[in-house]
Design a protein that fits this description.
By secondary structure, this protein is of the alpha/beta class. It folds into two domains: about 140 residues, Rhodanese-like domain (Oxidized Rhodanese, domain 1, 3-Layer(aba) Sandwich), CATH 3.40.250.10; about 120 residues, Oxidized Rhodanese, domain 1 (3-Layer(aba) Sandwich). The protein contains ten helices and twelve strands. The chain is globular. It starts with a strand and ends in an 11-residue tail after the last helix.
Length: about 280
């Protein structure tokens, strides 16, 4: 596969390239008590446009940051000055947390070349590279959507995968939440996991704001009981770290990985699905 990452040096050399669109895709869990929008306005990579994970979503559902209607997404991306033909570079304020979700969103909508800045904004700042304040804008353009529905799993499919094992279900939430020992951060959700799901916490796959080496990831997935040669569906709390897990699985060699967009925010809030603890 094409390397999903670009280096800070590469991006520094392409800041003025009109065929490169830079996107700040920072998002944080509520417990972090960080305001990604305010942080973006205070300082971002020069030319980076802001992508609001919560608002650039399907607002007709109560589930958090679900994928937008494809037509609406195409219009939004065009207004942001992003074409599906551009090289789109995503970064976030933690190094590697929400950027994979934004990358997955763009690729699922048909963008052809979407990369993640290795090390994200922390590495960029640590190297003394330039930042700018305020709102960056790009000239409006056209984003032609080619929506890949096969990249997205729904509740019915996840119920089938969980029962039949036709796809392994890999859960990116922290181990305590997976086992049902720790309450979910979103009120009203049950604690535990889907039947037959496998635990692969996203925070154990990242080190210093970057994915661990492929051989390390392969060893971790093997220890978790995940077979990289078989189809996999990833899930998490709300569809963000499931994208980090998906990226890590692919870097480790998995070829068929899809993402459950509703995630535990959907599953854990229902009474007609099974929840397992332990």
């Amino acid at each position: 596969m094409t390397d999903p990452f670009v280096s800070t040096a590469w991006l520094a050399d392409h800041l003025a390239d009109p065929t490169v669109a830079i996107v700040d895709g920072s998002w944080y869990l509520p417990a972090a008590q960080r305001d990604p929008r305010a942080e973006y306005l205070a300082g971002h990579i020069p030319g980076a446009v802001w992508f609001d994970v919560d608002k650039y979503a399907d607002l007709t559902t109560t589930l958090p940051h679900m994928l937008m209607n494809p037509k609406d997404f195409g219009a939004l991306a065009g207004r942001l000055g992003i074409s599906e033909k551009m090289t789109i570079v995503i970064y976030d304020g933690m190094g590697l947390f929400s950027a994979p979700r934004v990358r997955w969103t763009f690729t699922t909508m048909g963008a052809r070349d979407v990369r993640i800045l290795a090390g994200g904004l922390p590495k960029w700042r640590a190297e003394g590279r330039p930042v700018e304040a305020g709102e960056a804008t790009r000239p409006a353009t056209t984003f032609t959507v080619d929506y890949d529905s096969t990249a997205v799993a729904n509740l019915k499919q996840m119920q089938d995968f969980s029962r039949s094992g036709t796809r392994q279900v890999a859960d990116a939430r922290p181990a305590g939440r997976f086992r049902g020992e720790v309450p979910e951060p979103r009120p009203g959700l049950k604690s535990g996991h889907m039947p037959n799901a496998l635990s692969a916490p996203a925070d154990t796959l990242v080190e210093n704001g970057q994915l661990k080496p492929a051989e390390t990831l392969r060893a971790q997935f093997a220890a978790a009981g995940i077979d990289l040669t078989r189809p996999i569906a990833t899930t998490c709390g709300s569809g963000v770290t499931a994208a980090t897990l998906k990226l890590a699985l692919e870097q480790a060699g998995a070829k068929d990985v899809i993402l459950y967009d509703g995630a535990w925010a959907e599953w854990g809030g229902r009474d007609d699905v099974e929840v397992v603890k332990g």
